[in-house]
Amino acid sequence: MAIDQDTRLRTIVGAGAKKLEDARGISTVGELLDFLPRTYLDPDRSTAFRELPHGEDVVVVGTVVSATTRQMRARRGRMLVVDLGDEQGGTLQLTFFKPFGHEQRLVPGAKVVASGQVGTYGRQLQLTHPDYAVLNDPSGKSSGGWLLGGLVPVYPATAKVTPIVHGDLLDLVLHALEDLPDPLPPEVRAAHGLPDLVDAYRLVHRPQTEADHRKGRWRLKFQEAFVIQAALARARLAGDATPARAVQPVEDGLVDALLLRLPFDLTDGQHQIFGHLRTDLSHETPMHRLLQGEVGSGKTVLALLAMLAVVDGGGQAALLAPTEVLAAQHHRAITAMLGPLAEGGLLGGHEQGTRVALLTGSQSAAERRVNLLAAASGEAGIVVGTHALIQDTVQFADLGMVVVDEQHRFGVEQRDALRAKASLAPHVLVMTATPIPRTVAMTVYGDMSTSTLRELPRGRQPITTHVVTGDKPAWVERTWGRVAEEVRGGGQVYVVCPRIGDEDDPFLPAWRTTGPGGPIHLSADEDAEAGGDGDGDGGSQLHGVLQVTRALRELPATADLRIETLHGRLPAEEKDRVMTAFARGEIDVLVATTVIEVGVDVADATTMVVLDADRFGISQLHQLRGRVGRGGRPGLCLLMTQGAEGDPGAVERLDHVASTTDGFELARLDLETRREGDVLGASQSGGRSGLRFLRLARDEDLIVTAHDAAWATVEKDPQLTAYPGLRRELDRLDAERAAFLERG
């Protein structure tokens, strides 16, 4: 019988397959082979029993020193106690309450591999009823023959599948394997000195030396990177196969007119990137470009210039934003920058001008009708909107370009629906304010050309960041005093909380300061109830928006300030009302969740306080603080933590954020300290969407090498006719994986 990765395990291992499926969710050959050992033991190397971690599952190697069978006092029957010795003179007891069958094998001198949970009896370390194999069993009846010779792979234990049982079942599969469809072409394996797929799995699961399993893992990592890059290359080639409108520069057109009326000069970086955009737009293949840069680095100006270039060429451009608030902000900003250029056909408008239409779900029927007509007739050269843009009722006269802001917030189906409204493939520009490390960009956005804005526009004020620890009450009190001072000086303040909470949540210990009626204290009951509200915070005491708003309105320092809330439970129109009022300066302090992470620009917002800052990711904190200091005044960010006793590295991470405003350096650090799935957004996309073997923080050279090899392979044979193994692997990527990969 031919075996491949999709072969059901029950056809090879029989009843053991149900154990694996129940314990680990493993049901196919490929899933079992991809479940790699977590470490390896060398049977020839000593194991210090005294250093075994109490309460943890372990795999140990030792020699039987003595074995004693005795009658149990508390209940009927006998028990077997085996003293296992290590080379340092330490002992570990193996205890069996049903000794039958063990007495003949666990005799003095037997070399044993045992697995179980470390416990104690008196002062003696022991494993109770452990799983074991005798390495030098003369009867030959032992399982675990794979443990003889070489390194011992260690698989995590579960109640139903011990490491040795797991290894026995895997051994049956490895013996049955003769060949597997290999995604890596032979010439790629030869060029990079890689074993074939079956050999790679044998090197990982049955290594003789450290070099063996490292070579096998390297091969599996390379394959994962290669397949991802091949999928991206194939997607890019498929996109390039559909013709797009070639946009040539128009002398004295809208682009030149905007450059003349801008109140500032483009930075050198903006000039360079706009040149790249011009070149991309001039081709008859669609542009696929990612534009990344810090908040306020000038991405919107470049996107507007590119859209105007398309309008100069007779086409239309659409800008897709994730929220109505952000869509409205883009519409206002673009209209303000264009001035008379956005009043084409109107009295006082520029003779070459165009119109900018806004389409959102909450517009009145009359307003929506006007904007739909402007888009369908071509009167509006630029159409800004939210998901409302992709509805069937929205039509374009000649859509030539799509700009997506904060692209990770949109599904692939939504982007495809917008593309489908164009007769030719539209040029695509994706903007992100989240700095992306090189390996992430290659792995997620690998089918796109990448441009990076590193300079901030001239005149942009710096942001100073400080860490405030809740165990210093004077610092906490000073924080709220500083908030009041900023407001009196003409500034506005964001206070960010990790949860919404409820109106009647008790105050947390950090608020034990003087209130209007004297000191605010927590009762014992309040202290016990001050934890989470069931939102998954594990019972720890986290600040909520509603609770903090109430506290700020009672503190003498802030009681006279205009304080409002913003969070996800509010209706869309209420969120828009609050954000608009804050932007107009009608609110002094806005207490919010991270809904403000992508929000309107508020020039007078000078200060941000992030409560429980240790609960946020490094890149998220950097993104949040980018909301302040956007006017002509310096910004201040205060990162408050209650102590983070359960996470000793939390304050260190906050100190890193406070020490630099370089988002790319922080993104690299974030990648090193968080799971890949979080960074890639794969945790919301199903299990197969994440990376199995690659570690983006330390596999950059491998990813670059695999990228070059994969793109060369796909360019040479786009249909992969000569590479059935690779074609099969790409076809196996399900819809979730495809959505994860296709970012353009």
Can you tell me about this structure?
- This protein has 744 residues and is an alpha/beta fold.
- The protein is 36% helix and 18% strand.
- The strands form 5 sheets. The chain has a 7-stranded parallel beta sheet with strand order 11-12-10-13-14-9-15, with helices on both faces. Strands 16-23-22-17-21-20 form a 6-stranded parallel beta sheet, with helices on both faces.
- Helix 18 (572-583) links the parallel strand 20 (563-566) and strand 21 (589-592).
- Helix 19 (618-625) runs antiparallel to helix 21 (663-673).
- It is globular, with a radius of gyration of 32 Å.
- Mean pLDDT is 82; it is low at 512-539, 678-689 and 738-744.
Helices and strands in order, then pairings?
Layout: H1 10-13, H2 16-24, H3 29-33, E1 39-41, E2 57-71, E3 78-85, E4 91-96, E5 111-121, E6 124-128, E7 131-134, E8 152-154, H4 163-176, H5 186-192, H6 197-205, H7 210-240, H8 254-261, H9 268-281, E9 288-293, H10 299-312, E10 316-320, H11 324-338, E11 355-359, H12 365-377, E12 380-385, E13 399-405, H13 412-419, E14 427-432, H14 438-444, E15 449-453, E16 463-469, H15 473-488, E17 492-496, E18 514-515, E19 518-519, H16 524-529, H17 545-554, E20 563-566, H18 572-583, E21 589-592, E22 605-610, H19 618-625, E23 635-641, H20 650-659, H21 663-673, H22 676-680, H23 700-716, H24 724-731, H25 735-741
Parallel strand pairs: 4-6, 9-14, 9-15, 10-12, 10-13, 11-12, 13-14, 16-23, 17-21, 17-22, 20-21, 22-23
Antiparallel strand pairs: 1-8, 2-3, 2-5, 3-4, 5-6, 5-7, 18-19
